Amino acid sequence: MSRRFSSYIAGQWIEGEGGHADENPSDLATPVGEYGVVDAAHTAQAVEAAAAALPKWAFSTPQQRADVLDFVGSEILARKEELGRLLAMEEGKTLPESIGEAARAGQIFKFFAGEALRIPGEKLASTRPGVDVEITREPVGVVGIIAPWNFPLAIPAWKIAPALAYGNTVVFKPAEIVPGCAWALADILSRAGLPEGVFNLVLGGGRTVGQALVAHPRLDALTFTGSAPTGHALLRQAAERALKVQMEMGGKNPLVVLADADLDKAVECAVNGAYFSTGQRCTASSRLIVENAVYDEFAARMQARLAKVRVGDPLEPGVDIGPVASGAQLDTDLAYIEAGHADGAELLAGGEQVEWKTPGHFLAPTLFAAKPSDRIAREEIFGPVAALLRADDYEHALALANDTEFGLCAGICTNSLKHATHFKRNAQAGMVMVNLPTAGVDPHVPFGGRKASSYGPREQGRYAVEFYTTVKTAYTSA
């Protein structure tokens, strides 16, 4: 293990305790590196450093903030192959996907470099004579960021970049299984010209670092992406302090395939959405809802297509799907496959672990013909496991699509303008895709869902200003 990943607090690198292995899910015998974890006291130090740095950074010029973010974005883009390789080794995405994610992270920092120069405000006439009204946006304060492991560069980027662009200071806690990507971002930020304490990285577990972060009285806002149970627990804790909160908590996303769809395109949308990134995307198409008239043909085409999907080391050319990110997640996936069998679902493809040249968490892309009541059709699995559901017609398909506690995204494959238009309006989701995979979004437009998927303002694009700023109304008499 040649690399040691450290925390970054108040402008200093903190080694932390222990030599925890940063596992390579494609080769368990060759870890990516090692890292030390900090404790609650270090977390408090990070929040206090961010609070101390806030007044100066909040009143920094938009150009200063833009320059910092532009520097970060430029370096990420210049090093996207190197960073993508680290991501592929640490999280398990294929190298092309990983390089693409690194590029996206760089583009996000570049986007918010521009937004730092475009912070909106208004000047209005008062209803009273001789009075002016100004509406301005100010930073919300010290922002805690808790990010997941499945997009270890892009998701931190779309949280850190707007936070800094609008004048906030940051304490960032990444998922424990991706310390290397978090450290790489922190390393670039540490050289970007930020004043001491504006950005802080704390490596450690949710029960120690995460809890200490949310409980600290100087924290002003929390943005979280992760599982629904963890999000709800954090939301309850934050509510006790009236903490400003933004939550993204997963999905059970439908892809509807109607009888008039281009089935070749529909199959590609389904395979991309359900299985690429090993199905480890909150936007994954985990429910494939197919109109009865083409159900059997679609199922056969999916079986033929999945037989051609190559699972293996994400660094190897020609591999379509890398490993599951961790042993714990693999256990979860296998447990859901067993649940599918127990509920009587018919296994159409996959369902078994895949042997590779090196020991790793490899799992074949799995497809069940299921009932809407089956666990695999109702609960988020977060792996390469999808449920195929039969619909009588469009109306039945729409009802099945909306029959979930989640509402992140929904897709439809159809050549009917009537049905596409109706679906866009009536799908109970924050994002809708027509003839596209449900997974795959642009960084300059809002991201978020409804129902149990999301809580609080949207992420990404210009809508990020709603969470990372607070509005002030000022009255002036001439």
UniProtKB/TrEMBL annotation:
Any GO MF annotation of the entry: oxidoreductase activity, acting on the aldehyde or oxo group of donors, NAD or NADP as acceptor
Entries under Gene3D superfamilies matching the protein: Aldehyde Dehydrogenase, Chain A, domain 1 (3.40.605.10), Aldehyde Dehydrogenase, Chain A, domain 2 (3.40.309.10)
Q: Which InterPro entries match?
A: Ald_DH/histidinol_DH, Ald_DH_C, Ald_DH_CS_CYS, Ald_DH_CS_GLU, Ald_DH_N, Aldehyde_DH_dom
Active site at E248
> Coiled-coil segments, which residues?
none
Q: Has UniProt tagged this entry with the keyword Nucleotide-binding?
A: no
Q: Which CDD domains match?
A: ALDH_KGSADH-YcbD (cd07097)
Keyword Zinc-finger tagged? no
PROSITE patterns per the record? Answer: ALDEHYDE_DEHYDR_CYS (PS00070), ALDEHYDE_DEHYDR_GLU (PS00687)
For the Aldehyde dehydrogenase domain, which residue ranges apply? 20-473
Q: Which UniProt keywords apply?
A: Oxidoreductase
Q: Which domain of life is it from?
A: Bacteria
Which family is it part of?
Belongs to the aldehyde dehydrogenase family.
- The molecule here is called Aldehyde dehydrogenase
Taxonomic source organism? Pseudoxanthomonas suwonensis
